[in-house]
Amino acid sequence: MTERSPSSPAESTRSTAPLFALLRGAIAAGLGLGSLTVLVLVLWICSPDPDSSPGGALHTAAGLWLLAHGAELIRTDTLSGVPAPVGLVPLLLAVVPVWLVHRAVRDALADEERPASSTTVTFLMVVGGYLLVGAAVVVYARGGGALSVRPMSLLLPSAVVVMGAAAAGVWTAAGRPVGPPPSWAPVRLHEALARDRFGERVRTACRSAAAGTAVLLGGGALLVAVALVRHAESAQQSFARLSDDGAGQVSVLLLALVLVPNAAVWAAAYGLGPGFALGTASTVTPLAFSGSPALPAFPLLAAVPAEGPGTAPNWAAGAVPVAAGVTIAWFTVRRAVPVRAAREEAWSQRETALTAALGAVGCGVGAAVLAAASGGPLGTRALAEFGPVWWLTGAAALAWAMLVGVPGALLLRTWRLREPDENGNGEQPAREQKEQKEQREQKEQRERQDRREEDGEGRRWWWPWHGHWGDDGTAGAEPPVPDAVSATAPAPAPEPGSEPERKARSNAGVGAGGTGGAAMSAPASSARVPGPAVAPGPDEDDGFEPYDFLPTDPWHERTARPGEAGPSGDR
């Protein structure tokens, strides 16, 4: 008993982590189901003449929640009495469960208060908790109501969607890594991928593929908006024909909103070329609208082009895949040849083309997945097929991205690595610009130094130093020697009778005597101030010793002039 110590809080937390992960999955499923149930019940309450009881409204909410996961429903209350399948999934409605599962796994792995036991256990427990709630909803939906579920659709794609969203949550919690190939791969493959910057190229390809797919979807939404504006009257008439009360019109509006992503995917497939099907006997493409369409009254279907051969406005939809290919090329070259990279750091043509091709493949896969998820049956016979064909849409997206993205990436790479022309136009790598800037600065520095040397050697000042008086009345410290003049070179003496010579003699008299009168009466030769010895000039006598030149500020000039005030006591 004494050897066994009670478990620490960390150990107990680790042991209960799987239970908390299971609870997180169940809560995520409950949030999605609860929000949809509240919305359906509010619309049922607001309806002035509901066709079903509260139990029927709850069964409808359960069926819609399963439909959002990709399950195929069976509608039993048809006019003919024959059960009709409903497999067209509203993509905007499917975003809610996918996001909830993704967030549940991510938060379970990133929770610092309750650290997860392992990634695999957390993944399985979150998925298990979510599927337990889903199984209970399936049992409830099969018990009655107008909507039931096809059992095989619960495994594919419903369970696959949940597990895929959970796997994406694990990847997000790990920091979205793009790791090396598995350990069982050959060593040569590891080395080759390391040399070719495998991880960097894969990240760039994924980013460009996501951007290209987003441009395809956004371009399709733009086509739908333009078509609805052109056919606004038809859309309004179909909207008013479906319901005449407020709750019914709100229901139709919400249904149209959750189907907007589906319409955008259909329009993108239209711009790619394969188009989409409006029933088993009609196909809509930019070249022609052929067959006998099965068009139910719905506002979004008013955006369908008119029947007959296509015209120039229909062919203009081809700008959407072109824009997607240009986007793939741009996102590839942004990493292959960054603006501030040197020429030797840029990717080669082979690497750039291969990365753009990988991005095109990813765009094709994304378009195929969206096309497969956006279509489905709405009934039997003529209503058994709606939406684009997934493999045709994916192949067309791959072809457009390859034909536009790869050559566009190579052209953009050449443009970014271009040389400047004679006028200096063009962009250079940052390293070359930095070297040229350093060369210009060095050249300017040498020119400034040369100018200083020329100024110092060309000007010979006749005064070597502007001295100053010390506290004791004597001259200050030894004057500094200019850079261009040697300290031992003889200083040039002023010419006899010149202004500098007269000022020097006058100032020497003031500095030698205590009063102005004594200074004026004393001979100039006896008023020498100690200073550095200066050799006689060529025009001077050997006995002549020039004075050190004293300051010539205005105060000394005033005292040296007769009749002006000064320090002399004669005044």
Percent in strands: under 5%
**How large is the radius of gyration?**
46 Å
**How are the strands of the largest sheet arranged?**
7-6-5-4-8
Q: How many strands in all? A: 8
Number of helices: 18
Describe the structure.
- This protein has 571 residues and is mainly alpha-helical.
- It is built from 18 helices and eight strands.
- The strands form two sheets. The chain has a five-stranded antiparallel β-sheet.
- Helix 3 crosses helix 5 (151-173) and helix 12 (319-336) packs across helix 13 (349-374).
- 29% of the residues are buried.
Relevant terms:
18 helices, 3-stranded antiparallel beta sheet, disordered C terminus, 8 strands, mainly alpha, 571 residues, disordered N terminus
